[in-house]
């Protein structure tokens, strides 16, 4: 046996077609090798390794023998592991039959199965799949097996192939660990029944008691020959499957019950233990569940439970099942509640389940009738002898016991009779057998006669010894013919031409398919036949001698009378047996059979049989007679009969269908027909063509993937076609009665012509452009408007539009009344981005959740185009309330059905009413339950410094930490100090103070504003002007943050909070400058009592007062001219807001206006203000040095501590006036320093004035600030 590359090309093409048609990612497909995939492959990746070349795993470079994937849901994890146990060196068939897991593979498998055991609290369902069943899987070199690993991890199921369902339908096996340690236990070699009986049945419900180590092994059929496919489902840990046979054709509907499980093949001891101990998940038992796959929409699903106890199946429960919206399922998931305790029964096959599904085409599909047991009991199923032969026997373990049993048997029948012949006085022969008949005597006679033939006996014994010690075969092992090898009973020994090293004993126990049949069916029978021939030879010899002795007695006349009587009685029987030697002939025939068996086993190549198929041409009809040969009256009858068929899409003998360009179908009539009849027939052809187009559209758009609008439109068209077909049937009845002419046919068909052609135009455009959803509705509406002149056609198209839109309006209804998008086919004009979560509002600066979680798509139905925004907003509001756990059901008084969009525009009123309800309900929810205004007021207190007592205290205790460089600041320490300040000030009375946190930004305010490009700022200076100062500290970068929870994060988003922080940083730094200048002013006041005439201290005091006036004017402007008025304006507007969007708009408007009027969006002004603040800070820091250099006073403390400054000032007054004057005259540089600060401050202030004046014309809010600044300058 070897591989066929053409089959691999076929496989590759099929897989590519499956990937293309399904639209699935190729990476989720996984294929693995079987024994046929490595026939004759010497090296993985070589020229004969077609698997690496054509398989998906080979194309995706998956080289590992163990691959796993984990799927996680909210409740469980699902681990799928595929393993490739095929031999690394691929022998040619048939000695390539078993899986060969290595110790390395088993270690990898154990690691993959245990990867989630210690990393998750979620239960894990483990599924493994491979090619070889465990009955055809060998053990590793260390004696471990796949079964040991699977039992150790208690996987749910192992799926395998290899046997291809050729040996029966029940190729399933339940494995369970046993406590027996006996090496000779039969369970090591056989399992007599499908379900393995556990060693102990005692129930242990104690906490932490180990569950049973068990798993199911499910063999499945192949697709290529058996056309079998398996669908597997995992439902809350319950694993179920369904095998589908496609030999009988495609399935329109597939039903897979997922709970309760089939008690024959799916129940386990662990589930029984969980049920008995009440450890199972209650919710998983409360419903009957099933997956339904259908090409057409489903109308109803009904579950029926039968009771088999009376001997017949009686219905005890019939309940409808409802569709459950499950995003992870590819099919439709249905469930029905039930009282599972009512079906708790000790018999595992008393109750049977069947599910009936009816689709929109009125097709009924029944699931397989299957028994179930809610308490996890298993129905006992017995194998047939073929199923037991391939699934119940562990052939890898049986090979050597069978082999040595046959060898010992043959050595016994050869050596024991030989020893008896040599050393026993009693000899066994035909004569002794006649005297003392018995089974042992007969066997001893047969094989002692074989021993009396030394050549034969030694030949058989020598052959046995040869089979044990020498090769059985020598020759080519692989396809390429480069590697030679030989086979013994222990396996193949291959010498590779690449490295000249032997690979000893590969392919064991695969060689058993050659060794055991040869021993059992050739060598052993040949030995028995040889013994039988030897015994027959002895019998004939005795008979021949007896005949010779008889003649001598007759000649001498000494034969007694008794001998003569015996000779007469047995003469006929002896003549038959010995005269013709029939026994020898029978044995020779048996020898021929053994030789034939041996020949078939050793035959190197299988015969290929070819058959010639019959050509379809041999069945083609003869040439019909032209219709023009008939009379005109006959032609009319013939053409009417053909037209009747054409009206329902069937071509006739003389009216043929012709495929034109772009698959257009037209009808063509025989040219020999009467011209008048031809013209009248052509009048009817458009109706026939329209019917074909509509019928094809109905069939194609009834498929699963076409969408609900197409399904509804196709259903309406199907109903129309039924009426059309009824009309054709009536016309045909009239024709059979002889009452219909071709003119009459045209009379009846003419009224339908316009309607059918209009519909065919619609379906043609819809098919050509592959329209779905709203595109179909818009097409129908536009076509109806185009038919304004034909009221009948327009009415029909409007009816079709209404029918097609019912399902679409059902989606719309759920959206505007519940905030749920029930759109399985993606037809709705609102898209949902599930990757965006509400938690992102506190992290995403752009607040994409509110704008992009739900958004409008292209292709809005024309009758909803003007109100699409309202529809979007309504659902968004309802969705927010549902996310908050609030009842979002629109009151029944307003919940009118959206099933029509006629001219009365009733649907618009319904949508408007739903919008008003959702808007007011959400606004009340956020304002009242979540206290939006309270949160905004709290933000005003803390981030807009409305109540700043906590900040003064915080600044005092955090002064040392805030003056550090950025890399040295401990945010945790600042947070603890902030908490202390909040608890020890009036802020402790605010319940929201715990939501306040601190943070330290990484850049200055100017740099931050330059990086935020969406604030509407004017162009900032070049990057060189925005470079960070070298000595930036926490005072310039400190900020507060606020914890905002859902749903308030809709209003107070990350972007809004960032704007609050920008304002806070500006205010905080202005407060800091004011605080430092106040300290400097107090230092000046402390030395005011001294006579400072002739010194620079009075000039310094004037400068300090100007700086204080500047910073106080700025703070007054920011707080009383900007923040307070704008806040009250926003507060008043929010009281009258009617929707959350208006609240967001007013809030954003407030923040944007505050940013702008606080100069943060005017980079030129802001830079000047920052420069002035820097000069003020430098002056305040130098004020202590200036005064201490002017008079002889001790070194002052930091000017921020008021108590210390007052004590120092008292000490200064005690100094003598003459000593102070002396110190001033010694420090001439003080005056120069003060003058320098004064020049810098005045220069910056003077340059700021014109900028403010010019900007105040465009920005009127700057007028007051400009007046104050100019007033300061005039004072100077």
TrEMBL record:
Belongs to the TUBGCP family. Residues 20-165 form the Calcineurin-like phosphoesterase domain. Residues 400-603 form the TMEM62 C-terminal domain. Residues 250-377 form the TMEM62 Ig-like domain. Its main location: cytoplasm. It holds the Pfam family TMEM62_C. The chain crosses the membrane at residues 398-421, 455-474, 511-535, 582-599. One of its GO terms (cellular component) is microtubule. Residues 932-1266 form the Gamma tubulin complex component C-terminal domain. It comes from Hevea brasiliensis (Para rubber tree). It is found in: Cytoplasm, Cytoskeleton. Residues 641-929 form the Gamma tubulin complex component protein N-terminal domain. One of its GO terms (molecular function) is hydrolase activity. This is Gamma-tubulin complex component. It comes from the Eukaryota. Keywords: Cytoplasm, Cytoskeleton, Membrane, Microtubule, Transmembrane, Transmembrane helix.
């Amino acid at each position: 046996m070897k591989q066929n590359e053409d089959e691999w090309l076929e496989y590759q093409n099929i897989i590519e077609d499956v990937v293309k048609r399904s639209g699935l990612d190729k990476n989720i497909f996984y294929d693995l090798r079987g024994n046929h995939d490595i026939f004759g492959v010497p090296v993985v990746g070589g020229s004969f390794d077609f698997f690496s070349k054509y398989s998906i795993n080979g194309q995706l470079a998956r080289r590992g023998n163990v691959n796993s994937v984990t799927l996680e849901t909210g409740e469980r994890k699902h681990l799928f592991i595929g393993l490739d146990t095929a031999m690394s060196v691929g022998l040619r068939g048939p000695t390539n039959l078993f899986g060969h897991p290595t110790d390395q593979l088993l270690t990898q498998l154990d690691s993959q199965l245990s990867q989630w055991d210690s990393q998750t609290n979620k239960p894990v369902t483990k599924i493994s799949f491979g090619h070889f069943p465990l009955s055809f899987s060998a053990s590793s070199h260390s004696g471990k097996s796949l079964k040991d690993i699977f039992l150790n991890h208690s996987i749910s199921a192992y799926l395998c192939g290899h046997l291809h369902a050729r040996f029966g339908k029940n190729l399933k096996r339940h494995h369970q660990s046993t406590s027996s340690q006996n090496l000779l236990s039969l369970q090591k070699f056989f399992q007599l029944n499908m379900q393995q009986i556990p060693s102990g049945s005692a129930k242990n419900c104690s906490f932490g008691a180990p569950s049973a180590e068990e798993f199911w092994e499910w063999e499945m059929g192949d697709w290529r020959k058996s056309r079998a496919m398996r669908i597997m489902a995992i439902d809350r840990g319950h694993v179920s499957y369904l095998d589908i046979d496609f030999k009988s054709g495609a399935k329109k509907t597939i039903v897979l019950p997922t709970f309760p499980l089939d008690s024959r093949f799916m129940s386990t001891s662990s589930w029984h233990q969980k049920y008995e101990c009440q450890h199972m998940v209650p919710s998983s038992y409360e419903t009957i569940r099933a997956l339904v796959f259908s090409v057409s929409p489903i109308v109803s699903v009904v579950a029926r439970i039968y009771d088999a106890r009376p001997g017949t199946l009686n219905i005890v429960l019939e309940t409808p099942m409802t569709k459950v919206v499950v995003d992870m399922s590819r099919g439709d998931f249905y469930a029905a509640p039930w009282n599972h305790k009512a079906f708790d029964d000790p018999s595992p096959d008393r109750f049977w389940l069947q599910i009936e599904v009816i689709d929109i085409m009125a097709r009924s599909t029944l699931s397989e009738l299957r028994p179930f047991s809610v308490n996890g009991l298993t129905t006992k199923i017995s194998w047939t002898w073929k199923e037991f032969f391939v699934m119940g026997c562990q052939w890898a373990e049986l090979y050597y016991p069978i082999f040595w049993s046959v060898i010992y048997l043959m050595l016994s029948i050869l050596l024991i009779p030989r020893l008896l012949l040599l050393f026993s006085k009693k000899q066994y022969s035909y004569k002794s057998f006649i005297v003392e008949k018995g089974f042992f005597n007969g066997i001893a006679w047969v094989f002692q006669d074989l021993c009396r033939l030394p050549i034969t006996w030694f030949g058989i014994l020598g052959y046995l010894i040869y089979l044990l010690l020498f090769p059985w075969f020598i020759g080519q092992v692989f396809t390429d013919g480069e590697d030679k090898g030989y086979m013994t009973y222990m396996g193949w020994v291959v010498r590779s031409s690449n490295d000249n090293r032997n690979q000893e004993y590969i392919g064991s126990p695969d060689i058993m398919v050659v060794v055991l049949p040869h021993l059992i069916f050739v060598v052993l029978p040949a030995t028995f036949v040889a013994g039988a021939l030897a015994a027959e030879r002895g019998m004939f010899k005795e008979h021949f001698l007896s005949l010779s002795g008889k003649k001598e007695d007759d000649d001498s006349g000494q034969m007694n009378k008794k001998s003569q009587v015996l000779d007469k009685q047995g003469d006929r029987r002896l003549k038959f047996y010995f005269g013709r030697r029939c026994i020898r002939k029978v044995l020779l025939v048996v020898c021929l059979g053994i030789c034939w068996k041996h020949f078939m086993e050793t035959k190197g190549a299988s015969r290929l049989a070819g058959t010639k198929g019959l050509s379809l041409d041999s069945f083609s009809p003869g040439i019909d007679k032209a219709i023009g040969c008939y009379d005109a009256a006959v032609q009319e009858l013939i053409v009417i009969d053909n037209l009747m068929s054409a009206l329902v899409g069937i071509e006739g003998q003389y009216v043929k269908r012709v495929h034109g360009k772009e698959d257009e179908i037209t009808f063509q009539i025989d040219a020999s027909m009467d011209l008048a009849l031809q013209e009248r027939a052509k009048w009817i052809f458009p109706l026939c063509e329209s019917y074909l187009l509509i019928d094809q559209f109905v069939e194609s758009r009834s498929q699963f993937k076409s969408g609900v609008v197409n399904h509804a439109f196709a259903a309406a068209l199907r109903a129309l076609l039924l009426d059309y077909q009824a009309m054709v049937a009536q016309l045909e009845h009239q024709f059979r009665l002889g009452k219909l002419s071709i003119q009459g046919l045209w009379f009846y068909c003419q009224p339908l012509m316009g309607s059918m052609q209009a519909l065919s135009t619609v379906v043609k455009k819809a098919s050509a452009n592959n329209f779905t959803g709203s595109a179909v509705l818009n097409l129908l509406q536009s076509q109806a408007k185009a038919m304004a002149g034909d009221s009948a056609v327009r009415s029909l198209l409007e009816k079709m539009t209404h029918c097609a839109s019912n399902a679409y309006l059902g989606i719309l209804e759920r959206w505007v009344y519940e905030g749920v998008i029930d759109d399985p086919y993606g037809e709705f004009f609102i898209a949902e981005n599930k990757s965006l979560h509400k938690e992102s509002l506190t992290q995403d600066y752009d607040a994409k959740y509110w704008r992009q979680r739900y958004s409008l798509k292209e292709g809005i139905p024309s009758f909803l185009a003007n109100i699409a925004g309202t529809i979007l907003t309504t659902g968004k509001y309802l969705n927010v309330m549902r996310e908050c756990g609030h009842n979002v059901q629109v009151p029944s008084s307003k919940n009118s059905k959206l099933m029509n969009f006629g001219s009365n525009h009733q649907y618009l009123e319904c949508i408007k009413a739903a919008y008003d309800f959702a808007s007011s309900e959400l606004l009340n929810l956020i304002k009242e339950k979540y206290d939006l205004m309270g949160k905004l007021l709290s933000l005003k207190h803390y981030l807009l410094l409305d109540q700043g007592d906590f900040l003064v205290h915080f600044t005092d205790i955090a002064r040392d930490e805030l003056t550090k460089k950025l890399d040295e600041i401990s945010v945790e320490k600042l947070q603890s100090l902030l908490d202390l300040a909040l608890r020890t000030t009036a802020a402790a009375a605010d319940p929201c103070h715990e939501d306040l946190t601190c943070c330290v930004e990484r850049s200055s305010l100017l740099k931050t504003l330059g990086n935020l490009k969406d604030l509407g700022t004017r162009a900032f200076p070049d990057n060189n002007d925005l470079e960070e100062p070298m000595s930036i500290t926490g005072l310039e970068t400190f900020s507060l943050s606020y914890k905002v929870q859902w749903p308030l994060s809709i209003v107070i988003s990350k972007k809004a909070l960032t704007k609050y922080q920008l304002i806070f940083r500006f205010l905080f730094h202005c407060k800091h400058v004011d605080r430092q200048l106040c300290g400097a002013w107090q230092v000046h006041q402390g030395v005011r009592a001294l006579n400072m005439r002739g010194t620079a201290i009075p000039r310094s005091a004037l400068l300090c007062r100007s700086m204080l006036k500047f910073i106080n004017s700025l703070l007054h402007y920011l707080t009383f001219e900007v923040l307070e008025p704008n806040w009250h304006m926003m507060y008043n507007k929010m009281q009258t807001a009617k929707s959350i969007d208006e609240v967001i708009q007013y809030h954003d408007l407030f923040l944007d206006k505050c940013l702008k009027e606080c100069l943060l969006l005017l980079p030129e002004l802001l830079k000047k203000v920052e420069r002035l603040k820097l000069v003020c800070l430098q002056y305040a820091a130098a004020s202590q040095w200036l005064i201490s250099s002017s008079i002889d006073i001790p070194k002052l403390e930091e000017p921020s501590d008021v108590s210390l400054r007052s004590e120092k000032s008292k000490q200064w007054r005690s100094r003598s006036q003459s000593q102070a004057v002396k110190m001033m005259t010694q420090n001439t540089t003080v005056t120069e320093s003060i003058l320098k600060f004064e020049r810098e401050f005045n220069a910056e202030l003077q340059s700021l004035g014109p900028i403010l004046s010019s900007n105040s014309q465009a920005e009127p809010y700057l007028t007051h600030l400009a007046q104050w600044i100019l007033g300061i300058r005039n004072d100077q």
